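Let's practice the habit of predicting before peeking. Look at the sequence and jot down your guess about where helices and strands might fall. Then scroll down.
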Amino acid sequence: MATLTLERKTQHVNKPFEPDVVFFEPQALEYPLGKELMNRFKGSNTPIQMTTSHNQVRGIQGESGSPEWYRNAKRTLVVGVKRSLKFEPSKPSAEYAIPLATGCMAHCHYCYLNTNVGTKPYIRVYVNLEEIYGQAEKYMRERAPEITRFEAACTSDPVGIEHITGSLKRTIEYFGQQELGRLRFVTKFANVDSLLDAKHNGHTRFRFSINADYVIRNFEPATSSFLDRIEAAKKVAEAGYPLGFIAAPLYRFDGWKEGYEDLFELLARALPSSATKDLTFELIQHRFTKVAKNLILARYPKTKLEMDETKRQYKWGKYGRGKYVYKKDEAAELQMHLERLVHSYFPQAEISYFT
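Done guessing? Here is the structure:
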């Protein structure tokens, strides 16, 4: 029997994100979405500044690199143009990452964006959507007649800024018209209402990030609560989207087996049967790099996140860079336990991968 209760934790967000200051690249104002966003923020009296490039953003309060500076940077929005249209690979989730935005307003201690966005943790949104779609079309043509999957949440959480940009709904409807293209994204936010009437045609898999209560409570500030995510997942399923969950990062805390059992029992109890007809799970163990560890400790000096290299094994990655993951026997135990939970509580679901 689950020992947790479906509660909204006070550390989690209920109000949609609004930036403290917005920077515009001049070229962004040559695009319809750039003009829309300029008018939006002028109407809200949000401070607006111009910048020649996101690399030239200045004036974020606090000593550069300090926790205060980092918090303020995550309250900063940059409206710009995606200049490089070469899409990065996104295995094992998809063939390519489609770039709608970079950066996130959440404060998940373990997040790989700590290093991916490096010294530029502010949120960037791209307004040249038609050019981005044009590039996606080139990739689809190259792989025809096979279907090409595009991941929209590699460098951001697009749901967290959708009420500002509307870019995700436009992208969902674009892929709804593509015979050989499919869209995927994952979110920790629950403000999904504007996406429910999108003409997706079943071509977008809408996934939610889930975890044990211990992980959400200690390492995922400024995100929607577990309950709010699940309520949003119900809405998404009722709107006909293929649904998925990413259980990540799978983390071995004291009592982790019981904690993940509680998670799946609550999830099974909360989801209607209609939401489990086409359901996928992606399982990702916790990992970190030395660079990430140093940044995390600088930005969240009181974190409880365990990052002891002596307790991990080093796994080589692409470009000669690697990361610390759980040792083989611990990873195997983690995988076995989580796969058992999926098969037990959601026997019709597909496990896409464990990594």
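How did you do? The two ends are 28 Å apart (CA to CA).
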